[in-house]
Amino acid sequence: MNTQHLPAFNPDDYKGQATVIFSYDDGLRSCLENAVPEHLAFAIPASFSVIAGRLTKDKFHGNYMKLEEIQAIMAVGFDINSHGMHHVKRLPEMDNLELHEELSASKNILQSLTGSPIEAYCIPFSKATSEQIESAYKEYSIVRGSGYSFTTLPLNSGEMVKSFPLTNSTTIEDINKLIDTVIDTGETLILMLHGVVPDTAAELAKYEITRSTLSAILSRIKTIGRERLLPIRLSDLNALSTAAQYRLRSIREVESPNAMRASTNKIRLAYAPDETMELPASAIQEPKTNTGITKPNKPILIDAPDGTLKAIDPAAQESKNFETISLRNEPLDNKEILTSAPSPSFAHLVITRIGIGVRRKEFYDNHLELARLTVAKSLTAQTCQDFTWIVSIDARAPDDVDERIKALAPQIRTEVWRIDPLERNLNAVDLPKMRKFANGLNIITTRIDDDDLMSRNCIAVIQEKLGSCSPPAAITFPNGLNMTRYGIYNARFPWIAIGLSSLSAPAATNHIYGFNHTKVGASIEKMHGTAIVAETSEPMWLRTIRSSSDSHAGTEQRATKRKPTQQFQPEQFGLDFSEAAELFALLKTDSPSNIDTGVYTKAAVPRMILKRKLIQQIHQLRKDLAHDPTEIEALAQIVYLI
Fold first, then answer.
1. Where are the extended beta strands (E) located within 511-595?
2. Which residue, 23, 22, 88, is CA-closest to 52?
3. Where are the domains of the chain?
4. What's the farthest any 2 CA atoms get from each other in the chain?
5. CA-CA distances (angstroms) from residue 14 to 144, 155, 182, 204, 349?
6. Rg of the Cα trace of the chain?
């Protein structure tokens, strides 16, 4: 055997790039003879999950590695994991005694024979209940199954790590697509392999690949380079997850007390004209550090029912007396925004999704006409213009749509991204383009639909508050207005999508369209980030509710029972009175759409939900390497008919 030692995982090598793991099941002799030499030749590590009960029994040594062979590959840097005791029954078929032998006894035997800790367990047949996965995590730090899914870092505690099984029908093109995708997303790609046989083999078993196929995969990864795709072992995954978590916390160094004004886990900020804002001095003290990693201060909830900021103990939920500092905040009708943050060290994308999953010309005609009076007007009127407006449309939209979009707001920087939902999904964000735009900076992504408006101060406030945070962070404005054909009404929505913004690290995969907008705050806090609820005395957004929108019915019905607001000032959203009247008239003449097609949906099922389900079916079919292209094409036709 080649005595070259494989490189060990070094957390300093991880810069947020994608990672790849080769995980071989069963400990087959064919892997010793064909996979191990290839990995050594390319200096790319791998992990082998071994069936403990077959390791010392001679009758298995024709097809499986012996103990001394396992020890030999460990000596040059390969990783050994447990693949159970016997690999005869699936976990759901086992009783409690068998499950104990499968999980605990197999680990103890392998540790005793190899003299090394066994940290990962690869589920036989990839079948296990949630309770059994929980039991496995009591013995191991990593539990891996199948699942045809990438792994996102940091890891979620207690969740089975998923992988992509390779079969005899897997092609180099299939693997290259996975590699290209994981490089785009910055996630972890785990390849599950079994046998690797010589190219001269007469035929391949279902879970076998040839040595030349493996060599081609390794060669591609070697060519890409560790800076873009870092190969690691399965047992390195926890250390990688820790490195990823620390990287999220320390990607931006806090240099001044001002930068901590918004760095608590829960913050409510009040904007009230001509009012003094008070913050506890404890919220701006220098953070404590440990081994160079910046830690956030103790979570503080700040409420502002009277227009001032008061500290609330999150445990007792009782008001406390704090030494406070005062900050003056200008009225919202003043174009000058007070900014305490240093010069921007972020890029800012304001992203609007129009018609991903739709290619009809009439659709784009209707939506661009409405966008002219809504999102385009409000973005043009922003007091801060340091952003780029990204409009994501379907890859199959009419050719002239790109230029028509750029003509909506010629005064601001605008880019059009064409998204293919059949290759990706209905998400409006192209991750490679987003990262290229960020150019190594933190990035703010703001969401606004094509028929909504933001207050002209919204961008400035977003940048002021998120610009003083470390990623991840998010901000929402709960107070706004609904405009229907019946009038304009006060509205409140804690995590409304309009103006909803997140701050991400340069190599992170999260962005504002990657969250369920109603759960952004909880998701950010789970990531140990900053969630800001900005309470305002004036509306920060205007949401138009059309008869042809999927969410119109309940909102319009509630609106008829409310008294119209007196707060609407068109200029606050970038409109003059004639444009506001034109917008209102457009809503009144908008005709209801036929949501129930009668063929593909049940009554009252929103179109977007149905499209999403169909696209998920297409993606699921594509995971089957033997899929029928005609079935996918039929589903694609339905997607664009709805």
1. 530-536, 541-544
2. 88
3. 11-248, 346-589, 607-641
4. 89
5. 22, 15, 15, 37, 26
6. 28
The token pair that represents 310 in the structure block = 């008061």
479 three-class SS: strand
Provide the CATH number for the domain formed by 346-589 in this structure. 3.90.550
DSSP 352-417: EEE-TT---HHHHHHHHHHHHHTHHHHHHT-S---SEEEEEEETTS-TTHHHHHHTT-TTS-EEEE
Alpha carbon distance 623, 149 (integer Å): 10
Query: What amino acid is encoded at 280 in this protein?
Result: P
CA pair distance 75, 219, nearest whole angstrom: 24
Q: 220: burial class by Cβ within 10 Å (0-12, 13-18, 19+)? A: middle
Amino acid at 565: T
Rounded (10°) angle between helices 211-224 and 172-185: 30
d(CA 580, CA 587): 11
- 599 DSSP assignment: S
Q: In what order do the strands lie in the sheet with 452-454?
A: 452-454, 541-544, 479-484, 487-492
Residues 6+ apart with CB under 8 A from 540: 454, 455, 457, 458, 461, 477, 479, 480, 499, 534
Tokens matching residue 639: 């997607």
CA distance 371 to 504: 27
Percent helix, strand, coil in the chain, to 5, is: 35, 20, 45
N- to C-terminal Cα separation, the chain = 60
What is the reported pLDDT for 270?
35
How does DSSP classify residue 128?
-
Query: Which string of DSSP letters, residue by residue, matches 227-256?
Result: TTEEEE-GGGHHHHHHHHHHHHHHSS---S
How confident is the model over 247-305, as pLDDT tens digits?
A: 554 443 333 333 333 333 333 333 333 333 333 333 333 333 333 333 333 333 333 33
Identify whether the C-beta of residue 540 lies closer than 8 Å to the C-beta of residue 479.
yes
Q: Which two tokens stand for residue 436?
A: 């290229």
Q: Domain 11-248 carries which CATH code?
A: 3.20.20.370
The two tokens of residue 174 are 């299939």
What are the residues whose beta carbons fall under 8 Å from the beta carbon of 107, sequence distance 6 or more?
52, 82, 118, 121, 139, 140
Q: Which of 84, 81, 143 is nearest to 111 (CA)?
A: 81
Report the candidate in 15, 14, 13, 16 with the shortest Cα–Cα distance to residue 509: 16
CA angle, 212 as apex, 206 and 217 as ends, to 5°? 90
Q: What is the pLDDT of residues 89-148, one digit of tens each?
A: 999 999 988 999 999 999 999 999 998 999 999 999 999 998 999 999 999 999 999 988
Q: What is the pLDDT of residues 207-219, one digit of tens each?
A: 999 999 999 999 9
- Residue 247 contacts by C-beta under 8 Å, 6 or more apart in sequence? 14, 15, 16, 505
Residue 207: count of CB within 10 angstroms of its CB: 17
Tokens read off for 588: 């009144």
Distance CA(142)–CA(237), nearest Å, equals 8
- Sole residue written with tokens 């028929």: 451
What does the block give as tokens for 518?
A: 């109603």
**pLDDT of 44:** 96
